[in-house]
Amino acid sequence: MNVGIVGATGFGGLELVRLLKNHPRIKKLTLYSSSKKGDSIDRIYPHLNGIEEGKLEDIDPYNIPKQVDFLFSSAPTGVSASLLPPILEQGMKVIDLAGDYRLKESETYKQWYQKEPPDAKWVDRAVYGLSEWNTDQIAHAQMIANPGCYPTAALLGLLPLVNKRLLDVSTIIIDAKSGVSGAGAVPSVSSHFPFANDNLQIYKVNKHQHIPEIEQMLHQYSETNKPITFSTHLVPMTRGIMSTMYAKVKDGVSAMEIEETYTEYAEQHEFIRLSPAHGLPSTKHVMGSNYCDIGWSFDPRTQRITAVSVIDNLMKGAAGQAVHNFNLMNGFPETAGLPASPVFP
Amino acid sequence: MNVGIVGATGFGGLELVRLLKNHPRIKKLTLYSSSKKGDSIDRIYPHLNGIEEGKLEDIDPYNIPKQVDFLFSSAPTGVSASLLPPILEQGMKVIDLAGDYRLKESETYKQWYQKEPPDAKWVDRAVYGLSEWNTDQIAHAQMIANPGCYPTAALLGLLPLVNKRLLDVSTIIIDAKSGVSGAGAVPSVSSHFPFANDNLQIYKVNKHQHIPEIEQMLHQYSETNKPITFSTHLVPMTRGIMSTMYAKVKDGVSAMEIEETYTEYAEQHEFIRLSPAHGLPSTKHVMGSNYCDIGWSFDPRTQRITAVSVIDNLMKGAAGQAVHNFNLMNGFPETAGLPASPVFP
Amino acid sequence: MNVGIVGATGFGGLELVRLLKNHPRIKKLTLYSSSKKGDSIDRIYPHLNGIEEGKLEDIDPYNIPKQVDFLFSSAPTGVSASLLPPILEQGMKVIDLAGDYRLKESETYKQWYQKEPPDAKWVDRAVYGLSEWNTDQIAHAQMIANPGCYPTAALLGLLPLVNKRLLDVSTIIIDAKSGVSGAGAVPSVSSHFPFANDNLQIYKVNKHQHIPEIEQMLHQYSETNKPITFSTHLVPMTRGIMSTMYAKVKDGVSAMEIEETYTEYAEQHEFIRLSPAHGLPSTKHVMGSNYCDIGWSFDPRTQRITAVSVIDNLMKGAAGQAVHNFNLMNGFPETAGLPASPVFP
Amino acid sequence: MNVGIVGATGFGGLELVRLLKNHPRIKKLTLYSSSKKGDSIDRIYPHLNGIEEGKLEDIDPYNIPKQVDFLFSSAPTGVSASLLPPILEQGMKVIDLAGDYRLKESETYKQWYQKEPPDAKWVDRAVYGLSEWNTDQIAHAQMIANPGCYPTAALLGLLPLVNKRLLDVSTIIIDAKSGVSGAGAVPSVSSHFPFANDNLQIYKVNKHQHIPEIEQMLHQYSETNKPITFSTHLVPMTRGIMSTMYAKVKDGVSAMEIEETYTEYAEQHEFIRLSPAHGLPSTKHVMGSNYCDIGWSFDPRTQRITAVSVIDNLMKGAAGQAVHNFNLMNGFPETAGLPASPVFP
């Protein structure tokens, strides 16, 4: 199988290269980049020296379907809206890692992204690629809107409880923390090492564009549509997201119900792990892997649950989940191309 | 003035040495350590080479009042309970940086610390040294229970609003994050560099001994006694605490009232700063200083405020606040011995 | 194939677990630990939850050959001397990651390790497992003394030039830098996060036990036996070694000869990469992989070459090289079980 | 005294603000910036909120002498060449933290900086501000060329031995390591957190513009002019430089002579400290302070000394040394405005 990656020089693209070079069903990668076309990926990123050395191709939506059998698009949000439709119209299967096709309501997209939404036809057809929750739809989709990193962590932690109606959804507060790679490969002030190192930054409180994405999915599985409180922090580490989530349980819900719900959920899904013995997960427990680890604590004093989920933002939060979805779409084993173990320490 | 420091080889003690060597009213330091007595501080900590070179004295509560005019005690919690009463009985003024004398209810202390509480007489007389809130009492106290690092950050952020009855206190959730120096100078697994670096850990959810300390003070300034939800995270940085706090505002409370409350509060206190232009503070903005920076955001969708406070855990969260209290107790200028500026970057 | 790992809870052992779980020829791992016997590896290291969950077996040299077909020993130096001979006498193939069997001269071992050397019989038979330089011997060995992390980086950078007689070996100076995982999994003062973070430490100057190991191998490939100057630094990162090496070139040696030597060397070896276009390698270029990247610069003003090699200390410097040797010993493809790409960023 | 700082928004400028706000002889700071004129420093750098809030003034060399009594210039190298002469001609005393006026030979400057050198008149008059070595000249200078960060660390470590003719200067190799703040406040690829974190980078081997600066000063104190070998590494920490220096001692030189030389040197200078008991210094021992700590080891096998010096690159390597020089020029106590103790941990 020949697979293409648009936006190969970003962090999502680079991680796709790492995974797909190790994928047993992929023969050849073709890398696309508008900003770096003609250059070679291993000159820009010497860690790929001897591994992937092809020239970066210009992005031409009419040529791509002639060159590859499947496309991952990891361009910045806003690019996919115009780039992907001509490719999709030619029948190609696509996984888009950007935000363009995730929000079903065009008004919501405009409000949070301050951009024009893509063609409604493809927004409608795009399947939200939260692998564990839309498994069947993903398997039959032509087009996947791969979830954002924060929504992946938050939803994998919350949906099991929301789906079973265990939480008062009007009380959900999500305090999310991310490593700096979440800010992308382009240098900026907040990611300048002397500022980011030995520092904890908070940003975009109640303004992050991942808020409507989380709400859209929560609402699908809950009986009422309530807004959430969501804040995001920049932690001085390269990879990893921790989502600390607070909510009141509904009257009468017991710790045992929560335990059973999470246990069953973890048993059913290859990449979901429940921290043993009421432990709490650390981001390093999943680094470099596609796992989402979940832990929780119930406080009888406040009737609140504190749930914690961790992922590697570039893996389960981006490229790893994309490859998982690729496997589902193609009938490959779910774990194909995905590392057997996190990198630790 | 001759000043003594018990537990000088811990991080609180070391930071006291740094500050007091620079204090215009202090002539001499005497350092006490039971575990390292006879050794010299600069051999253990070479950064003090040429700065403070005296031998570490053994801790003898009957000798200390003969040797020094004022005592800072930075021994681990549990030691002060037996160590300090004989010193206090001799009339010496003491600031205790440990947890022993902070909680007024002995049952609460037993429950959260799993230790026997100190003599009730001195617990009663101890003034909780939150400098901005107990200023007058501190000025006239013989004995200060210096606040914990997490409570300092949380209370400085919450009390202005709680005191003005702007919050529904039953909805308070505190998501606290600390640098690893908060865990002390003794190596442990969770602070071993290969585990702590590039990692985010969450610990003691709803179980941290700082919970009753925060609640005790919140209850003093609010109309009802409600338990809080509190979680703590270990961030891969050396210093710094960020406290991200969530609460519903009471019906009818406006963003302008919050702004005015915080503005007035910051104007009245030397070491409280309000982030300008609705910015949000980073821990690095206060590193090495005694400042507490506060920012906030109000979300009309949820009627929740997200307030953020940052401190240097070893400064405002320990030694800096202790020196501030020392100044208040002795009628010195509030800023004496405290750095004029954070260290940045 | 059933494979055993002694000392599975150390960093070398953990990395072996990561690699061998992904090795196509290995059916089962048996993990041994004297200190943690009876416990399960995934309870101690939750990143292995769901991946490797067996109980840790006690280390019994007479039982091990009945339980496994091949043994990796990653116990601390000094343990292998007594542990391995009874296992080897039963004909089992063993790769030892400790220092015990690396030095051929027992007096040298005593002097640098301050320990009694192992039985000379097995020291003599042990093949020094520098994969690229002892390839044939490794393929036919019963017992491999896997190289130390610093020697691997230094030797892979120096031997090509030394072997071609391009350097004045009496001028070799090696300035080595390591990430903190090189200090092992047991917490210590110098690896306590508040001390190691944002800090650069230098240690064991001219005293490191890896000095005689480097010299032994250099002398084998050079015409004279000269002592080297060697210093080691602790860098605030988890993984990675950089070896910066200085030497005078012999009279008349040109930059082109050096370039040709390195180019040919890199072309012949799967895991050796020459930095393109006279670039210089960073440790992150090889993180999580078995690569050794090499760069260099020749200064005509001083007639000195500065050569730089980088490895992941837990991979090429320990477990990765061990798996490479395991593949050579068993006739498997050299890359079996080894990741196709570094983890970046 | 009213003092001006040109280039106040760079790291050198910011550190000057921190120090000078604490200087007992300075009444007022005036901050200049061409790129940020009109903005206020505390809006760009919130750590200065409430500490230094003035508007950034445009840089006008004809106005500056009317506004301030003394000028620190911390503009990028190349700017001072044209900016400072008109100011100097008006008789103002200036300390320049850039590289423009450090090299006495204009050809050398052109070759290493690839820029036009400043007016020879002021290059001649500029005193190289290595505080401990040019103390008297500094005291009487109108204009100081403040040393580079790497040269400061290397020279303070080498000059005592070179000056006493203890070293074979033709064998000097300097392996220097710096924290990322050395690269300045402007974001770049190599200082982008995801690339710089958990990584060790080497750069500009034998090409760094600090080489001729080191050589110029070494040659002044040695009997022969020999080129040095010099390499620079980027360490994942914010502040700190370690200079590891290798050289053969001259025939007959003993370890005792080295010890005596360093001991005497440290005793004579306020900010030079010799690591006690043959210890070796870490960069964190001097963080936030103006100290240079020195340690060393002599290897009788190779007759080489390994000397190690550490500084805080923004302090002794820039602003701290500048303030020290300012004190010398004005007859103030050497330590005025300089912190009594490093910040540790």
Automatic annotation (TrEMBL), chains A, B, C, D:
Protein keywords? Amino-acid biosynthesis, Arginine biosynthesis, Cytoplasm, NADP, Oxidoreductase
- Catalytic activity, reaction form: N-acetyl-L-glutamate 5-semialdehyde + phosphate + NADP(+) = N-acetyl-L-glutamyl 5-phosphate + NADPH + H(+)
CDD domains, A to Z: AGPR_1_C, AGPR_1_N
Looking at its record, which EC class is this enzyme?
oxidoreductase
Enzyme Commission (EC) number:
1.2.1.38
Active site positions: 149
Where does the record place it?
A: Cytoplasm
The Semialdehyde dehydrogenase NAD-binding domain sits at 2-141
What InterPro entries does the record point to? AGPR (IPR050085), AGPR_AS (IPR023013), AGPR_dimerisation_dom (IPR058924), AGPR_type-1 (IPR000706), NAD(P)-bd_dom_sf (IPR036291), Semialdehyde_DH_NAD-bd (IPR000534)
- Which Gene Ontology molecular-function terms are recorded? N-acetyl-gamma-glutamyl-phosphate reductase activity
- Keyword NAD annotated: no
- Record's superkingdom? Bacteria
Q: In which pathway does it act?
A: Amino-acid biosynthesis; L-arginine biosynthesis; N(2)-acetyl-L-ornithine from L-glutamate: step 3/4
Alphabetized PANTHER family for the sequence: N-ACETYL-GAMMA-GLUTAMYL-PHOSPHATE REDUCTASE, CHLOROPLASTIC-RELATED, N-ACETYL-GAMMA-GLUTAMYL-PHOSPHATE REDUCTASE, CHLOROPLASTIC-RELATED-RELATED
Protein role: Catalyzes the NADPH-dependent reduction of N-acetyl-5-glutamyl phosphate to yield N-acetyl-L-glutamate 5-semialdehyde.
Q: Which family does it belong to?
A: Belongs to the NAGSA dehydrogenase family. Type 1 subfamily.
Q: What is this protein called?
A: N-acetyl-gamma-glutamyl-phosphate reductase
Species this protein is from: Fictibacillus terranigra
Q: Which gene encodes it?
A: argC
